[in-house]
Write a sequence for this structure.
């Protein structure tokens, strides 16, 4: 007798392989492809010596070493949760001060509570636990247009309906959010709406950051629709790329700034991307009344993150090594983004447009003139022939019956590849685009 | 507006805090309590120097170091999956040979396929993903009487109905399993039955191991009911304590031994407990047709275990450090089990009975003469007054309307505490039991 639908769970039947898994296989099968697609981080700057030094320091001290190699707790290391609360507090305060010259308006009058922070297996697990805690199949979630495509896979797996809200260089457009909420209210669907998901810093894939004003306005709009929804509508602030914004001084404060807002905000972060991706240490700061649910689910899932990697991250933060490294990484990614940007300026035909990213690992480019970029497009095929892979923009748009998915963008990653490889990749990509044009002229 | 049931998911409303969370809080609030309750592992033998040496070795080699600190894949490190396949193969072969003098019947004619192995965040996550993949609320699962109480919390969270199957010193009683299957068939519930869960080596809490014959018979019985169920009925073999069985030479082969059986067996293991619990590296070997589902769910959950801890475990295995350490640990736990056993022999009143465990971290003791051991019992309260905590046996029994939960047992842990502490704890526990008796004589 074979395994079939009568054996598996509804969820596992719903869950599909990642939309780009065929692309990942392709890259594995043809390693000669210059991948502008991968979300991997820079290899050359991985902190081998620092981690060695830290591991040595921890394991040479019997007390600390034993604590690092013993079971931890479900919530995560108290030391790391305290450090995270302090760090977020400081980040918001610094940023509030630098963007607001009036010291009386300094943010975070109240410190953050470490007991509202839960350490996770990367920020991905914080997203998973969030959906486990607040959604049932058929619920609704709002996301940005475009958004983090892995999250769209999660939503699909959880059976959640999605709507995309338009964005611009300042982030989500609050008037579009309001429009959508009114429509949901009118159609009677508002009660199924659980949250709005924003990747608020150096967004994957657009590279844009959301201003504090826009986030705050979005939150206030959500609050206005609560009574009509019959329950709170959460704002999930995914800050995974926060510490990879190039200009930390101009970075916006988070929505944790005002204590009252914290009861509506799920703030997710990671120590992975800006330090050592092989560690997988993320976290979430959750509303107090939600934390219990997340905590119980985390207990079932794995009863707590690995103590060893948490200890390493804690020591990296305490010793200052973490800050030094994130600074180095920002510099490195800025150089790589600049190199990619320069190469694009040199080779791009007129119908290719893009913005310099505010941080992160990606340049988001848009093709004008009618050609598409999707996996079945002429351009994608030509690129493959030329040994180039990118992530088609269409994957970053949720299924939303109110619009068709734009199919004219590309996510170009400067994360993993070295500069000469990036330059050559961009040159060939641009040639492929120009080739399309000249053909269409015939 | 407050968060309430209209906001949360059905699952998160179902999930309860761990049954023993009040007990864990008690132990935290009163650190003077000699805890025979904790599932923590031995601190003194945690491999600080070995992990330091391994981390140093990996991080001093740029290529290996970069691979260890970069993202991994969802399935887990290829090196560790290969090592796991080899290791399981060898364990089964060794054990099949030692328990079966006929070399022509040597087990594992076919090697295991590393691509059916997925690395998880401890074996707990393998359990979680298994339930995610194969159960919906209302499904049925069979467990041993008694069973691993954390798994019962999982089942409750997933909304799964449970039935307990009686066990004896050889493990599950197949005739009881058959009886239950017939009853489920008769009541028309068989189609909701998804799996039987066995903790087959040095079971938590009983300390007993299941013989190969019993496991095999259980599997054959499940197969006979498949057509009536309308789908396969899986056997989940939780082998978390396998490498902590004291006598590895007498250890039973696993159900992965025969290639045909592998399509019905979910085999779960861990590198955590027998090495360094702070690492949280577990794994599952899944039927080929199930692996895809588990893989997709793992992708959503955290897209893969931390590469760094996987690299450390891989190197520990490859270098032989892992084997040396598990041997040391087995010796250590055997000494502690023996010390606890001796103390019990010295102090126990006649109405306390127990077996010497086949391995693991626990002695399972049974109280005769009518007194109970539950959290509201006289004994539990007296123990608290005496500064002793144990896990009441009642927690290790699933909800099963066909019987009442036995309430006369205790799980006594020798995992974390040092020998003098164990001795003093057992003495006081036995005094508390004797105190009950003398009072009931009045």
């Amino acid at each position: 007798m074979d395994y079939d639908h009568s054996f598996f769970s509804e969820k596992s039947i719903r869950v599909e392989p990642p939309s780009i898994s065929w692309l990942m296989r392709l890259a594995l099968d043809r390693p000669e492809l210059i991948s502008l697609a991968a979300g991997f981080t820079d290899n050359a700057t991985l902190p081998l010596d620092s981690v060695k030094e830290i591991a040595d320091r921890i394991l040479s001290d019997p007390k600390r070493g034993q604590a690092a190699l013993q079971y931890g707790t479900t919530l995560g290391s108290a030391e790391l949760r305290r450090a995270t609360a302090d760090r977020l507090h400081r980040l918001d305060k610094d940023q509030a001060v630098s963007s607001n010259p009036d010291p009386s308006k300094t943010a975070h009058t109240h410190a953050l509570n470490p007991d509202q922070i839960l350490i996770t297996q990367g920020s991905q697990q914080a997203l998973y636990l969030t959906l486990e805690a607040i959604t049932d199949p058929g619920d609704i979630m709002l996301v940005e247009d475009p958004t983090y495509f892995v999250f769209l896979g999660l939503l699909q797996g959880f059976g959640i309906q999605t709507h995309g809200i338009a964005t611009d260089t300042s982030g989500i457009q609050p008037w579009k959010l309001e429009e959508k909420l009114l429509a949901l209210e009118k159609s009677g669907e508002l009660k199924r709406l659980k949250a709005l998901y924003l990747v608020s810093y150096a967004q994957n894939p657009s590279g844009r950051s959301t201003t504090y004003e826009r986030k705050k306005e979005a939150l206030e709009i959500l609050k206005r629709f609560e009574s009509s929804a019959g329950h709170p509508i959460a704002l999930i602030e995914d800050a995974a790329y926060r510490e990879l914004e190039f200009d930390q001084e101009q970075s916006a404060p988070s929505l944790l700034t005002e204590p009252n807002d914290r009861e509506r905000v799920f703030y997710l972060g990671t120590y992975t991307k800006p330090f050592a991706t092989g560690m997988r240490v993320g976290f979430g700061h959750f509303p107090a009344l939600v934390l219990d649910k997340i905590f119980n689910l985390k207990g079932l899932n794995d009863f707590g993150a690995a103590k060893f990697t948490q200890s390493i991250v804690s020591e990296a933060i305490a010793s200052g090594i973490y800050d030094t490294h994130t600074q180095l990484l920002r510099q490195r990614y800025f150089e790589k983004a600049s190199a990619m940007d320069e190469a694009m300026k040199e080779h791009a035909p007129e119908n290719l447009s893009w913005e310099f990213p505010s941080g992160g690992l990606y340049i988001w480019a848009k093709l004008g003139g009618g050609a598409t970029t999707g996996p079945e497009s002429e351009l994608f095929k030509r690129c493959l022939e030329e040994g180039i892979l990118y992530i088609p923009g269409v994957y970053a748009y949720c299924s939303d019956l109110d619009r068709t998915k734009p199919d004219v963008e590309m996510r170009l990653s400067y994360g993993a590849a070295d500069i000469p490889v990036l330059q050559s990749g961009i040159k060939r990509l641009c040639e492929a685009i120009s080739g399309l044009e000249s053909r269409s002229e015939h």
